[in-house]
Design goal:
Length: about 250
Amino acid sequence: TAIAEIQFADYIFPAFDQIVNEAAKYRYRSGNQFNCGKLTFRSPYGAVGHGGHYHSQSPEAYFAHTPGLKVVIPRSPIQAKGLLLASIRDPNPVIFFEPKYMYRSAVEQVPVGDYVIPLETAEVIREGKDVTVIGYGSQIQVLRSACDLATEKLGVSCELIDLRTIMPWDKETVLKSVKKTGRAVVAHEAPLTGGFGAELAASIQEHCFLHLEAPVQRVCGWDIPFPLIFEPFYVPDRLRCFEAIKKAIQY
């Protein structure tokens, strides 16, 4: 198994051609005779608190647009181990983005033994009935807090979903939830325009239109280079996510 590390994700772009034009297409163009040796790219991504525009970006949408690649983003140490082992054993090339913000803030007792968490499956972390809240990576802890605030201030029951794999994403789990709640909020650190949240919003609108009680809300980074001193205003926080939940509920 080939495992490469590119640190940070901001510096993955010199390898972009080899990843999207070669690795992603290798099985296809060989008629499934060859693969890339279960190639897995580990790469720390996202905000870190003081990284600025070259150490804070979230480039997952670039790679999610490429058939042949899988894109995985864990939310915690336990998830990271299970998803990483599953990525390494998958015959397809996998981009495994690790939320660098979580390196020093996430603490869990990770099982010593071997285990895998299946790729392409989202997890319903918290069941609810009023609104579906969707995220991945480090945004999950932000969304947990926003959901707690919505319950405290508004009496809202939030269903929280961690995508875990954003390509291919678990459409069945997401759509089933939105059809139940009638509302959806999507959050990610990457910029709004062309972010993966747009794909989620479009699919939800297409398949859940008659079930929706409000427009799909997106809480994302702004369409600007990632700022240094203004990072707290750029990254979606619990209050921005809470306001999106509130808007969906009160629409």
